[in-house]
Prior knowledge:
The chain is mostly helical and 562 residues long. 77% of the residues lie in helices and 2% in strands. It is built from 27 helices and two strands. The protein is globular and about 70 Å long. The two termini are 31 Å apart.
Amino acid sequence: MSSENKSKNKHQDQQQDQEQRQSPNVVAAASIVDVGEHPEASAGEEWQSVSEKQGVAGRETKQHPAQTEQVGLAEIGANASDRKHTVSARIAAHFAELLKKPGPDNRLQSPLKLLRLSPKQAYTFSVAFLGWMVDAIDFFCVSMTTTELAASFDTDPSNITSAITVTLMLRPIGALVFGIIGDRYGRRIPLMVNLFLFTIIELASGFAHSLPTFVGLRAVYGILMGGEWGLGNSLAMETLPVESRGIFSGILQEGYAVGNLVAAMLYYAIVPSLGWRALYWISIAPAAVTIVLSYFLDETDAWKQARQSQRDSAKKYHQVVLDMLKRHWLRCIYAIILLAAMNFLSHGSQDLYPTFLKKQHGFSPKQATIGTVVGNLGAIVGGMFFGYMSGYFGRRRTIIICVICGSCFIPLWILPNKFGQLLAGAFFMQVFVQGAWGVIPVYLSEISPEGFRTTFPGLSYQLGNLISASASQIEATMGEKNPLPELRDGQKVPNYGRVQGILIGIIYCCVFVLIILGREEHGKQFGQYTKSIDQGIGEDDDNGSHGYRDSHISLKSAEHKV
């Protein structure tokens, strides 16, 4: 009996010695698994665990301190290599996922069925759509009355465009302020306040008698415009049925194009007979109606659940915000870069195109306006159609389709000399540019951290807008520096077409790469902390900052796993 016990003890001692000699790679791999499964452990606790366990290991095995340090460095190096391999594998998996055929559960449903909403859902979406449309009406009123404003203020048209620049620059401030208020206190009241102040600024703009006053009013308007989109988008996306989000995302985003068309119609109906000031006064009517309608809105269930969760956490709101940034900082950066590229795509394909038609091809202002209208019609069609198709193909795959098809229409968009062919190019270019944009509202809402569905999409959108504000200026400057070989009436003709084609081609490539790197949460249930169906690059932050945690190895977890 004593002999058996000695043999058993000897076997256990040998097994323990074998465990202590395990490869650092095994320890590191086990710790990574453990960290991924236990996201609640803090980085500080992991570092403490490392220090303590390294000391214990040094005492038990009587290793020299230098040997212990070498083992720790080897573990960290092995872990960094594993992390690099994981990111590469994830990117490859994302690209392969884009090539897969949609599964049997992902059926293409009838658009008529998807458009059927309950009265509450239809009402909430209508208010969100009208809010974005009236913002667009006022924004385009300035660009359409540039000549009249310059004559009234006795200045150059280029000075009037400074009001547009200021508007774009200050939109992120509104997205941040109204986003935080909306996520914390609800969306209904902030939306009403936003629209009311917007109406006051719009009315006051018609009474401005100097350029500084007008620019100052437009600066305040820029803050308000930046706040409206996030409020309206979060209300709409959190209210709509999951299966209907795609098609209504396209409709919602093209409220901007509809506002452009309405502004053009109001301009030709009012300005020739009543002047530019009347345009600003009369255009407040849709905003006033939207204010009244927003009074009867209800807060969404998803916001109520998120707010209750924040209250139950016993944390102050700024702590909740900091926790979100720690967990999702990489996702926030990704969204801003993606939206910068998307805004370059829209501004680069729209803003300078009327000037391209007039100056490079010599078409009349009326023909240039027709080109703008045709492009907006293509935008509305593309936004609705591809928003609908994203419910079947997925958000990322749909944007990829738009990028590839849009690239094919760049030659038709800039090379022909006949007006009809250029109109066809403008139509199809905007079908695919705004087709990709039609997916953006729902895509941002689905990848948004829970409880920040106003701030995250709105601020990403407006920061991207700020970064891309120089798109038309870049195109204009480069086109003027690289004119056409032939002269017209003894003057150089800017080659805007070539510059637009090169810029849009580059941006299409950037969007393609960014979408491959992104995440997919198609069908996510709002108000619940669900795991994404296609982990994206932002997954490094889902369970804490893995990029930071992985460099501090938990030997305790590793020993437990091994």
